[in-house]
Amino acid sequence: MIIQPKRLPTLVALSIVAWCCGVAAQPLGSMAPGTSAPIDLPAAIRLALEQPGLRAAAHEVAASEAAADQAGKYPNPELEYLREGHRAGTRTTTVQIKQPIELGGKRRARVALAEGAVALARTEHEARRQQIRADVIAGYYAVLVAQERQQLARSLIELARRGVDAASKRVAAGKISPIDETKARLAASDASVELNGATGELAIARTKLGALIGKPAQLFTLAAQYPEQLPAVKPLATLLADVGESAAVQRARRQLAAQVAQTDVERAVRIPDVTISIGSQRDDEVQRRQAVVGLSVPLPLFNRNQGSLSAALRRADKAQDELAAVQVTAASELAGAYTRYEVARGEVALLRQDVLPNAQSAYELTLKGFEYGKFPFLDVLDAQRTLFQSQSRYWKALLEAWRGFADIERLAGHANTTEQNRLTEPGSHP
Questions:
Q1: DSSP state of 415
Q2: Alpha carbons 384 and 195: distance in angstroms, whole number
Q3: What is the CATH number of the domain that holds 416?
Q4: CB-count exposure of residue 256 (10 Å: 0-12, 13-18, 19+)
Q5: How far apart are CA 101 and CA 230, in angstroms?
Q6: Containing domain of residue 125, as a range?
Q7: CA distances from 219 to 28, 207, 209, 245 (A)
Q8: How far, in Å, CA of 380 to CA of 362, rounded?
Q9: C-alpha distances out from residue 286 to 92, 181, 188, 280, Å
Q10: 281-340: per-residue pLDDT in tens?
């Protein structure tokens, strides 16, 4: 049941009864062997960050760093051996070393491109990390809310049973029609269906969270936390001002930098390299050895790399436009997530403070009035239905609020770090 400061004593008693019924219905030994200690949210995030998905992104970062180191290497020299003729005394033997020399800033441009790839890989790694973190936050509270909704469904069964008992007594006393008792039993059956649905939703939520943290659904339990305590977020204007630091915008910015670096590489390719050679030549016929010095330069008559440079320029323009589009999209999605969060949080507050207490009071009074013959049973069913719908709306709004918060975390990144927010970081403690 929902923890409210002004809870009616009857509702508390019903919660205890429903909990006891749930414990009694659970067979002994149903808890799987090897179940670990309860997992809180920081531990869940830490476990998720240790899974292969993030490790794969880390491997890409390491590979990009190795490629950047390789990009800075100079070209190797070549050792050449040449022999003219095969008869002794008439042969000419030449041994020389050739060293290619890169011109036009090719090495510098190549290193800049490789370093851009490293930055992009690191950004992808951080984006993946933020996505996993947001998924765990949403999944963790989805399980907690599903547990509460299951408990709510069990309490509804207890409420329906009270209605059946009251209707049975009134029928036995000849005060109401047996049809009303039938309606009460139908309401109890509907409550059982709701419990089955809530149990299924809980199983699905646990399976999804288990996939994120790398544990089977039956082998973990969550620490007792309160999903009703929604965290505060920074004002929307502050978040939008820092949206440029989000993972999506950073990724687009790194891609633009990489395309600009690729353009510099293609531009440098247009400058031909030279190859310097130095060696020694021996002429057996004249019994003389002499030095050999050479210089070779390719003539850019047919291929000046125009097509590759043009393609790189167009891709840089594309990356520039994509960056502008991503900035607009990120701001729009962040504003949408913020609005969803604020609307859901406002609905949670309204339901908790006003709607739920009134719905609970109306049901209790209607049931008591029916027992004394002052209200028809249809009023009892209507009050019961209103109470359950209000409870369901409350938990649905609460889950929507947590999903909105997780989206804000993903879209705003470190720009949304608050005191409550930092408590979800692995290794942090309240």
A1: G
A2: 15
A3: 1.20.1600.10
A4: buried
A5: 63
A6: 105-158+187-270+330-430
A7: 16, 11, 12, 38
A8: 9
A9: 10, 126, 116, 15
A10: 988 887 888 999 999 999 988 888 999 999 999 999 999 999 999 999 999 999 999 999
